Amino acid sequence: MKAPPTVSKSKYMAGRQCPKLLWCHYHRKDLFPEEDERIQAIFGQGHEVGDYAKRLFPGGIEVERDHWDFDGIVTESTQLLSERKPLFEAGFRHAGGFARVDILNPVGRDQWDIVEVKSSTKVKDVHLEDIAFQRFVYEGAGIKVRRTRLMLVNNQYVRRGRSILDSSSRSRM
Questions:
Q1: For residue 17, what are the contacts with CB-CB under 8 A and spacing of at least 6?
Q2: Cα four-point dihedral sign 138, 11, 152, 85
Q3: What is the pTM of this model?
Q4: Residue 91 · residue 84 · CB < 8 Å
Q5: Do the domain assignments include residue 64?
C-alpha cells in the first residue's frame, strides 16, 4: 500500500487559503506557471531578511539539505538537537505533516523556542496559522516547545551608529 503524501507547511498553508490549490499541488503541477523575476525577487527579499535574523543567533547551525529531502532533513535535524545550539531550517515530521522552522532556539536544558521570520511589518492571521502548524508538527515529533515567536520587520527603526550585525564599521542595511 502506498504511503499517504507528506503535507509540507507551504502546502498546508496553500490548502488553508484555497483547497483547490492544494489539490493541484498534488495532482496537476503542470497548471502552475514558471516563477518569474518578480516572484524570485520577493523570495530573495525574504531570504535576505532571514539571513539578517540568523545573525541575531550566533553559533547557529544551518540544516543544509535539498528542499524536498524530507528524510535527510529530519535525520540531520534530529542529530543536531543534542548540540543545543540555534538551528536554522530544522525540519520534523508528525501525523503526515512536515515543517521547517526558520530558527529553533534552545532554552534551558530541554526546551526550544520556535522563531518564524517574516518579511512583513505586522502580524497577519496567516502567520498565526503558519506557526500553529509548525508547533503541532514539532510537539508531535517530541520537541518540547516553550514558545512560538514571530520575528517581523520594524519599519519604524532608524539606526544610529554601528549595528551589532555589522562585522565592519560600514553598514549596508
A1: 126
A2: positive
A3: 0.82
A4: no
A5: yes
Q: Report the number of distinct structural domains present in the chain.
A: 1
Residue with cell 550566533: 58
Kind of pairing, strands 7-8 and 61-62?
unpaired
Q: Report the C-alpha gap between 94 and 128 in whole angstroms.
A: 19
Distance between CA atoms of 131 and 110, rounded to whole angstroms? 20
Q: Which pLDDT tens digit goes with each residue over 102-150?
A: 999 999 999 999 999 999 999 999 999 999 999 999 999 999 999 999 9
Residue type at 43?
F
In a domain, 158, yes or no: no
Q: Is residue 2 part of a domain?
A: no
What whole-number percentage of the chain has pLDDT above 90? 54
pLDDT, tens digit, for every residue of 11-39?
A: 888 888 888 888 888 888 888 888 788 77
Residue 169 φ/ψ region, left for φ over 0, alpha for ψ in the -120 to 50 degree band, beta for the rest: alpha
